[in-house]
Amino acid sequence: xxxxxxxxxxxxxxxxxxxxxxxxxxxxxxxxxxxxxxxxxxxxxxxxxxxxxxxxxxxxxxxxxxxxxxxxxxxxxxxxxxxxxxxxxxxxxxxxxxxxxxxxxxxxxxxxxxxxxxxxxxxxxxxxxxxxxxxxxxxxxxxxxxxxxxxxxxxxxxxxxxxxxxxxxxxxxxxxxxxxxxxxxxxxxxxxx
Length: 193
Fold this sequence. Notes:
- The protein is mainly alpha-helical.
- It is built from eight helices and no strands.
- Helix 2 runs antiparallel to helix 3, helix 2 crosses helix 5 and helix 6 packs across helix 8.
- The two termini are 32 Å apart.
- The C terminus is likely disordered.
- This is Sigma-70 family RNA polymerase sigma factor.
- Belongs to the sigma-70 factor family. ECF subfamily.
- Keywords: Sigma factor, Transcription, Transcription regulation.
């Protein structure tokens, strides 16, 4: 196996510990990824209680099926995010389909549009959370603080050229949220939602 194909050591060790049934490993995994899982689920579902439910489901699945994670396929973080996305989209479809059948308001096309919108928003959140801190810091200043590249450069103590580069790269990554197979998004995170 080539060096670049070797999964991070923490990911391999965590999977092994979970497979052995170490409750402390689940606690450590929860501490590391609970906010990611809850945030992605909430972004898709738009409901705090539903996001809590998905968070529980994800960690139950991880606990009961640790061998379903293959470290060779990518980071544990990506696998957890993909699992969260899949379960949240399933829940959204089921909830909206039930509401559609019950109320008769809306169409299947509107349902799919809503699922697609929620999926793109969740992918964008994941991309922002996963991008390197220097890119994220530049984007946060530009977007939330309404800073231009000159002000961002001053705030971060970098050159104006570097600020422009970080903003451009960050926006390029973020623009992939609409792609069906977005680089930087979890595998299977695009396409069929």
